[in-house]
Amino acid sequence: MLVLYCILTAFIAGYWRYNATETSRHKGTFYPYTSMQYAILTSIWALLIFIFGFFVFHEYTQDSYFITTLFTLSVGGGNFLTLLFPDAGKINERIFKTLLWLSASFAFIVTVGIIISLLSNTFTFFTKYSFIDFLFGTTWSPQIAMRADQVGASGKFGVIPLLTGTLLITTIALSVAIPVGVGVAIYLSEFATKKFRIWVKPILEILAGIPTVVYGFFAAVTVAPFLKSLGEGYGLTVSSESALAAGLVMGMMIIPYMSSLSDDVLHAVPQSLRDGARALGATEFEMIIKVILPAAFPGIISAFILSFSRAIGETMIVLMAAGLAGNLTFNPLNAVTTFTVQIGTLLTGDQEFDSVKTLSAFALGATLFLLTFILNIVAVRMIQKYKANYG
Amino acid sequence: MANITYLPGGIRRYFYQKLFRLVTLSMVGLCLLFLVFLLGRLFYQGAGAFYHYQIHLPVKIDLSSTDARDIYNPTAQDLANTSFSPLLQNALLKQTPYDMTQAEKKSLFSLLSPESLFTLRDKIIANPSNIGHNTTIPFSLSGTAQQYLKVGRKELIHHDMTQKLNLEHNHDDFDFHSGYRIFSTKDTFNQKLKNHKCTLNQENDLECHFGTSDPSLFIRAGNLYGKIKQINFERSGKETVFVKIYTAPKDVIVSSISHWTLTTSPLEQSKRKISDMTMIITEDLLSTGMIRSQIPNIPFFTNADSRNAEQAGILGALTGSLMTILVCFILALPIGVFAAVYLEEFAQKGKMSTFFEININNLASVPSIIYGLLGLALLLNIFGLPRSAPLVGGMVLGIMSLPVIIIATRTALRSVPQTLRDAAMALGATKVQTFFHHILPAALPGIMTGAVLSLSRAIGETAPLLLIGMVAFISDIPKHIFDTATVLPVQIFLWSENPEIAYQEKTAATITILLLLMICLNGVAIFLRNKFETKY
Fold it and tell me: Which of A50, A287, B171, B187 could hold A282 in an S-S bridge, CB 3.0 to 4.6 Å?
């Protein structure tokens, strides 16, 4: 196949070129790669160019000119790698410094761009809808009039039901995640043997890496019907999209996050405290409850705040397992909705961009962003102060 | 562990200690249990999507029954315009030995999936030398047949009986289509008919009819497989059963059977999608081996999404995912690494850089849906890029992965000891030289691990892609990055909303594939980290 031929040629070209340059110019200097590794890198580069070209320009690959261009690129690309190992010189320095500066500015522009785009659309929203009604209104029914004479189509965009819904689900999630997360962290840092840690930590990482769609599917298909039948067995009315189902599964999702943060915090407690407690004859239980946890308390609070901010920003689990109706209720067996679900459903539809409905999604996004931003800053400050006390 | 008697305060402290240890260990056990339960349940639910049933039907490719009968030497274009449904219908009818009514024939033809016509046509066009001969071609069965074979079969209740039955072939009754036989026996069916509505007829016998809204009863003996239509219970205890047999031709006469099976289907025919006749014929073809299961389910991996549940596949979503991740990687990795390098090595440490650092740290924990909002406002509205394209999806995911890659690179760069930099500078190297020759190779494992981990996170992201429009129903495989596409997690989301069982199975199977992909990526990250790590 042509691909293998190109790669083989790139491999040979890279190997030859490297050997040629090494013997003549870089004799005696420290070069971090052997020529075999350089050749492998060149062939990987050729393969990547091929894949990129194949996918990006799929419909043109029938053309033979294109194939030959790709071929030349992949062979020549091997030599392009010498640019990554430049020799000294003022021009080289300038070029690379500019390249790096450009990347940094791009990243900076992106971060600023997020804030600007959110804020500008939010301001447009607040010119069309009152600020007080948004923040303190207790009805959420996002409809707008399609025609001027449409009856009963005035929308109310009061955010309080969303807030209570979010808080309800997050409370349930954290009441599951905090005991289990801190308990797991305590066991792993105080009681576990090294072998146990080697086996259990990857499993927790797997749990952390599962995509949230999977949790959402599990919540919608397994947990919610189970809770419904359980509740009806006791005579309670459980909605098929209850906040309890979404909250429980979200709690399970946050457990690895909470436990890894708490683990870091518990490790930061200095060994002198532990030694002192043991020297005074405390059992491990007493040491943890009376010495370590109070010492690590600010750290655990900041872990709690970070998990909280992660929970309020979670979309897919609530989208699939909780409902869309903006109920103002504290009953976990009802259906509630959150910020993220509303952002998702308001924008997947046929709306012109300037309507109040679409802009309200931006207002919600800005609120969410502000909330998580503040929570993160508070948490990070706490961690810094805590580490400064024990550093 | 201290001896109890030496512990001041007594056994109570020791007890609390043990209890606490047990409680925290049980928390760990809870996590493991949950993981095992979650994955096990997903694999179990998705197992049904990895195999499917096919029928290996011998088809006589005889063009005289199609529109192409008058064309001498038909070309590929002529063949492509012909409808080959008469061929398929004749092939199916050959397998069923008795005469059917039109309604029954229609029910029989629904056994094959709608794409069987296209499969036949493609096979004929590919091998025109087969015209005029018999060939055996595997066809996919329809969704209802597959559901029956995978799930419905297991709900049938079988009773094995050894009473001897006498058979008579009935010619003169109102149902003149053949295969109608009478069994007469004593006291065999009484106990199987609890709660059935029966009426008394003129001779004071109990007559029980089995229509479409009654549970179905079947009799199977060897090759004979039939449905019970009516049972008469006479006062003398004699039972007369009217059975319609679908699997033997009308002129085969059997006089008695001694080993037979009575099968009940708890769900009535009116509540099922598959009719009794089709069920019987499917069972018969299954026992002769004409219907076989194929593992793995090839169409699942080579088709794009479809409205027919059994034809839907993941190739479209996989290709879309691959393209999106490629664009994300190409955007986020160079920019992220170079930006972090600039901030760490070359920038003046001042207010600007601290502000930027705080910004980046906070952006890494912002909810992912905000990036979707950014993509919508900026990329779709202001820049006017095509909706639902992998290009836009990749850009959104790239912007989302940027803070994570920057933080990972900075951590990796900071872990390189300062002595390396000082030594290189002392020997006269410039900043760029020290960086590319010494620091970058040393920090490369950490950078690669961070990049692969953020990539595996990006593969599983759904929320931002929903906002940029990847939630539409796409039934083609995307050809390039400006084409409309969907990604694996969004495909999971879309299929999970469909209550049809086949779609639920496919959702679970796709989740399995996505998790496998992510485990592979994480494995690659761990492998890279272990192989290239240099300890200073």
Answer: A287
